[in-house]
Amino acid sequence: MNFDKQHKIIDEEFSYHSNVWFRTYTTSINSIKNASNLIIEGMKSKPKKKLLLFGNGGSAADAQHIAAEFTNRYSIERIPLPAIALTTDSSAITAISNDYEFNEIFKKQIIAIGQEGDIAIGISTSGTSENVIRALDKAKELKIKTILLTGNHRTNIYPNYDEIIEAYSISTPRIQEMHILIGHIICRLVDEEFKKKNNINGTNNKKPIIDYPEYSTKNQRTLTL
Q1: CA distances, 34 to each of 50, 147, 164 (Å)
Q2: What is the CATH number of the domain that holds 10?
């Protein structure tokens, strides 16, 4: 492939991303705020509620990524927050798949560890992943808050989930790019809510992390490699 062809492909990919980014922003901003508030309310309650995330393939990776941002930190120091990706326990996943069926892998984990008031985030680019939909449906039945991250599939008809966030595209790569951005935005909104509650044992308060140096007068940033 020559240089000009490579340049054209790169330009196209950035152009596609920018277009989807803008459309997703204009159509999903309220859904993102609402989903963030569901999580914040749950984690401020007593006892504190937890976040349960799940999806397949790249969406499974997103579930694990976002869960880690909660249990560790996103961009500032704060208390660790309870989040579990239901995609990481290979023994549970293979046992359920072997004894029952693959479409039950998240639903049975929801039944096992989900509690009323928890928050379940199902991630499905198509919006039709059976194991994700079954888990969200069961979560709704158990009075767990339900959030679906999906694409702009107007032909899909969803149950009455608490919030549905749609990336404005039907292209899987573009939807995945929006999903991790949306996940990061939710993490930052939650960070901002809990940032004043960071005086706990085991949390290092002496190293501020600022991932937005252009907005900081001190222009500080701590990186851990």
Answers
A1: 17, 10, 10
A2: 3.40.50.10490
Total domains, the chain: 1
Map 177-213 to HEC letters. Answer: HHHHHHHHHHHHHHHHHHCCCCCCCCCCCCCCCCCCH
CA distance linking residue 149 with residue 51, whole number of Å:
14
Domain-embedded: residue 144: yes
Residue 113 lies in a domain: yes
Q: Is residue 215 part of a domain?
A: no
pLDDT tens over the chain, length 225 residues: 898 899 999 999 999 999 999 999 999 999 999 999 999 999 999 999 999 999 999 999 999 999 999 999 998 889 999 999 999 999 999 999 999 999 999 999 999 999 999 999 999 999 999 999 999 999 999 999 999 999 987 666 677 899 999 999 999 999 999 999 999 999 999 999 998 644 444 444 445 455 444 444 444 444 343
Q: 161 is written with which tokens?
A: 């989930």
Name the residue range of residue 191's domain.
Answer: 3-197
In a domain, 213, yes or no: no
3-state helix/strand/coil string of 22-83:
HHHHHHHHHHHHHHHHHHHHHHHCCCCCCEEEEECCHHHHHHHHHHHHHHCCCCCCCCCCCE
Torsion of CA 75, 150, 99, 108, to 10 degrees: 60
Burial class (CB in 10 A: 0-12, 13-18, 19+), 112: exposed
**Residue 74, Cα to own-chain centre: how many angstroms?**
12
